[in-house]
Structure formats: C-alpha cells, structure tokens
Amino acid sequence: MVELYGRSMSRRDIAASxxxxxxxxxxxxxxxxxxxxxxxxxxxxRSGTGLRFTVLVDRAFDIADCExxxxxxxxxxxxxxxxxxxxxxxGEGGLAWLRSFSGLxxxxxxxxxxxxxxxxxxxxxxxPRKTISHSLHGRIGTIPGKLxxxxxxxxxxxxxxxxxxxxxxxxxxxxxLELVRRIEIKAGTNDIRLTDRVVNRGFxxxxxxxxxxxxxxxxxxxxxxxxLAPIREVVWAAHAGSxxxxxxxxxxxxxxxxxxxxxxxxxxELVADGNGEVPVALVNDALGIGFEVVTRKDQFPCMFxxxxxxxxxxALGIEPSTNHVLGHSAARERGELIWLEHAxxxxxxxxxxxxxxxHAIAASEQRIRNLADQPAEDFPALSGNHVxxxxxx
Length: 393
Description:
Elements: E1 2-4, E2 7-9, H1 11-17, E3 26-31, E4 41-46, E5 51-56, E6 62-68, E7 71-72, E8 105-108, E9 117-120, E10 131-134, E11 146-155, E12 158-170, E13 176-186, E14 191-200, E15 206-208, E16 211-216, E17 226-228, E18 231-237, E19 264-270, E20 277-284, E21 289-296, E22 302-308, E23 315-321, H2 328-333, E24 338-340, E25 345-355, H3 358-371
Antiparallel strand pairs: 1-2, 3-4, 4-5, 5-6, 6-7, 8-16, 9-10, 11-12, 12-13, 13-14, 14-25, 15-24, 16-23, 17-20, 18-19, 19-22, 20-21, 21-25, 22-23
Protein name: DUF4432 family protein
Pfam families: DUF4432 (PF14486)
GO molecular function: carbohydrate binding
C-alpha cells in the first residue's frame, strides 16, 4: 500500500483518484538549460510525501537538490551543479575539484579519495607512467553516466520509484573501473536507498578507495542543530594543532554561519548495531526536521564529520569512507588499500532518511544512544587510534 495524505491507498484507489500517478509521485527525466548547468541530464524524484530530490545523470548519478515540504535538506554551493565538460580536475594544484563541489551527495573515488597524492604506477605495466597523480577526492564525481533505466515499479500495491546507471572511469594503460548505481524510494516514504557496486572491468590489479561527501545545508543545519552518532571515540581532528578550541566550535552543536571560518574535519570511530548498520544524523529540534544516514560498518569502516560553517558556504558533511583520513599513502603502508583484480567488485548499501518530526528525531536519537553514548564534551580528547582495517592488502 502507498501512504498518501494520511491514507493507505491501493493501486486501484490511486488510479481512481487521478488520471496519472504522476499527479502524486514519480520520476521524470529533464535537461538543465542555463548557466554552468547547461546540458546536464537530471532525474527528478517525488515520493508523494512532500519529499523531492534530483539525481544528476551526467555527474555520476549524484543527488543534487533535496527538499521536504519546502524545507531544504541538501546544500547548494557557489560552484553550482557544473556541467562535467567544465570540470578542472587537475587544476589549482589538485584543488579545482572544489569548483564542481555542490549538492546533497558527491561521490569520491573510484581509485582515490582525500587530499592530493602521487602513487606508484607500476601495477599498470607502462614505463612512462611511473606515478599516478591524484587530485582532491578523485575523478568519479564529474564523469557523465549512462542511464540504463528509470521509472515506476509496481509490486502489488507498493510502488518503487527507481533509476539505474553505469559510470565508467577508465584510461589506456591505467584503471578501468565501473560504478553501477541504483537509487530507489518506495512511494509514500522518506527513505532514499542507494546501492552501489564498484567493479574492476580491466585486467590490471587496481586500487580502490571510496567515500560519500553527504552535505546537509540550512535549515536542517542552523544554530543549535545537533550532530548525533554512536561514537566510541573521537580519533582525530584536523584543527587540533596549536589551539584545538581556537574557533570555539565543537563537534556536537552547530553555530550560526561564521565569518572567516576555517573548515574543521573530525574522524569518529563509530559502533554498529547487530545488523552491522551505523546511523548518523543532523537534527534541528526547533524546526522538528532532521536527516539521517545509515551505512554498513563492513563497507564503510570510517566516518568523518566536515564542518564548513563559513557564511555563504554553510554546510555540515557526513562522510562515510573506506579508509582513514590518513590518506592514500598511509592506506598502502598500513595494508588497508583495497585492490581489485579483474571482475572483482565491492558493494555499498546506504539509506538517506528524512526525519520529519520530533517523534522521528527522538526515535533516531534513541537508536543511536542504544549503540553508544557520544562524548558530552564539545572538544573531546582525541585518541589517535586509527583502528586497523583488516581483510585488505
């Protein structure tokens, strides 16, 4: 059954109420036609609850806009949803990735995440390519996808709204990796389900690193918004050098937009539930709205919290990652870099959930607290314990 307007409606009920289901919910394909976005194919999802989100086919099927009943969930940066043909991946010493950085979700990978890095190129057996140079967060997020399908899938009286596609990152004498992505939501609900497979289609042994940069904006992010996570220990903070408290912004409670704010990044070691799932949320108690991300610990063993609280760029990032914040070289040295042989793959299952009222917020907070009581201090002691990630090498 589909929950619409406070009623459980069968497929027949819905058909009797309108000439097309698209009056209530659906998926449609469109093309953006102005400014830096011109030419990008985009899928618009409406679940029937007041939830609307868009998927950029030509930017790795990442989720761009997201709103619930007029309240923005996702983040729009000054860069806009730039057409991939305008991307400057290797510019500005590797930081030009930031000129295409916007949206609720930006995928990072497929063979590199985090800051710039040069790695040995010997696995590709090509003499002139002695090193592989990586810019910030990898190439995948600005590669156009191949749309293999989208639409409505009726399963009895339930309707699944979905899309699927393939994004290829490949070169001669180098990696040939493929991202196969499916996004779906049951009509009448607020749970967006993301299923990714990263496959090595090439015949070279190839490294794989993966991260989602999930960016929550105002009004979910606002003064006194709270970050909730089942934190066993706070491992690391990028700003913990000479003055950990310099900006007087801790990890738990967010301030209003700040002038001259320097980004802060934390790594938390999180606890999974009995099913291996890890929930993290940002909630705005005053508005009764929140956003929860649920990942799997065996797929994303690491979690970062990104605070970009600068006026005009105000965002909070939830970042599940395959690797520690220590970076690419450290992952190699520690034997924690994933290597994929031909046809080998890794799978990632993630849920984005809109917490629509105070009851949903309370339920999420209780679920998280049942796993671990996060530190009560704004500036907890940092353990420095980057737990070894097994099963790799």
